[in-house]
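Practice problem: predict the structure.
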Amino acid sequence: MERLRIHAPLVGFLMGDAVVASGASISLAGWTKPAAEPEITVYMGKDLASGADRKATKDAIAGLGAAIEVADVEHPSDDVEGTLARNIYQRHVVLSGCDPTHAGGGLAGLSARVVRNGAEMTNTRDFEALTGELIAIVGHVADLLSFFGETLQAGQIIIAGSITPPILVQPGETLGFHLEPLEPLSVSFDAAP
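Answer:
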C-alpha cells in the first residue's frame, strides 16, 4: 500500500470456475509472470453490513482456512487502475475447508509453512505483517461492497492477502502451504496447454 500510495487494500473478486482442488496441476502456457500467494481464507457465517463495528465483524466470521492464490502478473503492478481492471491478476485459487475453531477471525494457535519443491521457504505465525489486520480487511471489504449496492454475505469468502511476498513460479515446480493444524494444500505447475 505504501508503494502504491493507497490507504486500503485493493479488492478483486473470486470466480467459482477459478477454484482448483489441492494437488491440481495448473498449466502456465502463455502466462507472462506466474506467481503464487499463500493466504488466509475468511469464511463468512453472517451477512456483514457496511460500517459494522469490530464485534459485529468478528461475530460474522464463521472460521478461517488456507488458500493459495495463483496469479499472472501481466501488467505493471504500480498501475492501480490497470491492476484492478485485471482483477488483481487472479487466475486460480486452491482453498482449504473452514476451521470453525477460528470463528471470529482469531489467529492464535495457527502457524504456517510454505514449501517449494519439498524445501521449506517460510515458517511464520505473523500472518498480518504484510496484509494488515484481518478484522480490518473484512470490514474494508464490507464497506467497499456497499458502494456498489452489495453486502458481504454469509457463505462468501475472502482471501485476505499474501502472508509472504508473491512467489514467482515456473513449470515443473510444486508449492505447498500448510496452515497448521489444517490439512496442507499444494499446487503444481506445468508448461503444457
